[in-house]
Amino acid sequence: MEEKAIDYFRKYESIIPDFERFLASLLTPQPYWLRVNTLKISTQKLIERLLQKGFVLEQFGNLNAYKIIEKPVKHPGATLEYSLGYYYIQDLSSMAPVLALNPSNEDTVLDMAAAPGSKTTMMAELMRNEGLIVANDINFNRIKSLAGNIERLGITDVILTQKDARVASFGLKFSKILLDAPCSGEGVYRKNPWGFKGVNERQHRYLGMQQMRMFKNASNHLEEGGIIVYSTCTYHPYENESVVKYAIEKLNLAPIKVKIPIPHTVGVDRWKDETYEFHEDCIRIYPHMVDTGGMFIAVLAKE
Amino acid sequence: MPFLQKNEYREYFMERFGIPWEILEKYIFLERGRKIWAFSGKYLEIGDIELIGIKALTKGRVLKPSTAFLRIVGKRASKNVIRLNYKEMLLFMKGEDIEKSFPVEPGYVIVVWEEDVLGCGFYKNGVLKSQIPSKYRMQDSWI
After folding, report:
1. Strand locations in A51-181, DSSP E?
2. What global pTM score does this model have?
3. Do B55 and A151 touch (CB under 8 A)?
């Protein structure tokens, strides 16, 4: 299985820096990260409680992100504190799109493909349960898991909808939109290598086309001066830079360079016959950089 | 089915549990069918809503508060609150009954251990029945 995975990811040798380290990282299990739900408990109190129970945690910089180095239980959610909604298991890379969006309690936010809710609940925490988040997902079972996480974490500023993000009307315009698009999921390989199914070039293209349709719909729902954060957890440029290129050229959105406090590289400048002049405005997080999953992020504005 | 705004449900939490107005006023209460939802965001009428905010109450013969909402507002409750010791907390969180006399009115109560609001219980005739939904209950392997 490992050899198959290595073969699969070889196609990215020309675009992923420090490629041998990248490949080596795929063979090590991804650690768990947690985010304190400061809507319910102070960071200090929760960390003290978890340390007392035998957890060993390492904070990443000044972020509300803690790598679980050691845990006294099989699953990091097998605690009273988790049941009470005091923390959420969320990979550091998955926090990056929300940091790029930087929502405040003044915002009206659309989360177009929200389940299972890592980013929705993080946004609600940053917004202190104020403002408005419309969290959407097309799949009923995924909506149920999203609703469960919202309930456990005590999130009260979210409206849930079940719509097709490619075509649906959400009935209003938003100041900020998160389009964390369904993708081929290559960046979560380390989380579940057994369940990983790679896709071929044609399938990457197809996914890219669906992502473009979502982007177009997102753009239709964006206020003047508003921003869209586009993110995927995959590496293929057809699902990343190509989609951003479409948004710039066909939807007249403007890329914005944002800083996030997580190590990353810029986007790729070319893939096959396509070039991406805006690549320096894109963000790519790879697993060998900070021991996380992989993530692509771009921020675009309607001017 | 539409959600109907009925903020008079705030009074239930004030009267039953003594939760102050200033805690409750940030929520609007929306009724759909037998369920009442609490929402603290900017309320805009949009179509095809699946869920809004958090379930706060279920209508029946009497109103039943949800564990999820009590965990948010219950810290400021001043009556019908039961405080458990560690052993009792473990039993309660496993969904088991606790036979003991507590100085509260019969009916739904807020159950607390130290600083944690554990959720909703039902107290009658010297028995506290855990109303913790099964998905939140502690398993033997938990810590």
Report:
1. 56-59, 66-70, 87-89, 108-111, 132-136, 158-161, 174-180
2. 0.95
3. yes
